[in-house]
């Protein structure tokens, strides 16, 4: 009779072990309040944001990242290159009556560079969370001492360290601005040499940063600055775009670019502590296209 309690404990241990195996088989094990081992899933955004799914699916995949953030879209490296950095790779800056707008060389660029927010997740790379509010560019800006800097704004509520792109001011208007991106290890120094720009634009419930003043850019580039007139699409709904041919781009490098640490501008990062690789300049910039959004007169 004394052996029965031991037999009962043995059965309980066996059942517990089987439960752990089942949890591991499904890809996640609960440790305290944190879920680990979450794998990518093929998911699609819902509601008004569903319009982005068919537009972007040929050029990347939809996943849910650890922490339950998603669905998010991450571009395929063979489409954008292994050194991809949003608002730098495959595009250029153009001045408009709504502030600085990023003109992408890719026909799908009207979506992730004017709607939603970008953030870097160490296991997935650069990810884009859809949103339905338009802006010429969802970035924060710095300027001064002959340098221009900008960083993608993360989704509201997600605390990540800004990943800054800096170029010499005279290169700011270059067709493929990523070619002139300064080494990330210089970012901390350039943060001290430049000043934050807080020229806010308000449209309905939305606010964004207009970016550097026209006179500042003209002074550093030494050329007059034309201004594009834009009429934003209706709030809360992506503007439809006709199908276009995808712009060609130099294939990604055969070996990964060297890693480098971006500046530590905030004390916390909820999406992880690793940092994206330092981008490498392409030998041949992608063919420059006109902005994918229509040029209409702003009232």
Question: What keyword list fits this structure?
Answer:
alpha+beta; single chain; 299 residues; 16% helix; disordered C terminus
Question: Topology, pairings included?
Answer:
Blueprint: H1 3-25, E1 29-31, E2 34-36, H2 51-56, E3 60-65, E4 69-75, H3 77-80, E5 91-96, E6 99-104, E7 117-121, E8 125-129, E9 139-144, E10 147-152, E11 165-168, H4 187-193, E12 195-197, E13 200-203, E14 206-209, H5 214-221
Antiparallel strand pairs: 1-2, 3-4, 5-6, 7-8, 9-10, 9-12, 10-11, 13-14
In short:
The protein is α+β, with helices and mostly antiparallel strands and 299 residues long.
Q: Report the principal-axis shape.
A: globular
- What structural class do you assign from the helix and strand content? alpha+beta
Task: Compute the average pLDDT.
Answer: 74
DSSP summary, beta strand count: 14
Main sheet: strand order? 11-10-9-12
Q: Note the gap between the termini.
A: 90 Å
Order of helices and strands: HEEHEEHEEEEEEEHEEEH
Helix content percent band: 10-25%
Report on the structure:
This protein has 299 residues and is of the alpha+beta class. The chain contains five helices and 14 strands. It has helices at residues 3-25, 51-56, 77-80, 187-193, 214-221, and strands spanning 29-31, 34-36, 60-65, 69-75, 91-96, 99-104, 117-121, 125-129, 139-144, 147-152, 165-168, 195-197, 200-203, 206-209. A four-stranded antiparallel beta sheet has the order 11-10-9-12. Strands 1-2 form a two-stranded antiparallel ribbon. It has a two-stranded antiparallel ribbon with strand order 3-4. A hairpin with a 2-residue loop joins strand 9 and strand 10 (147-152). The chain is globular and about 45 Å long. The model is unreliable at 8-39, 242-275 and 279-299 (pLDDT under 50).
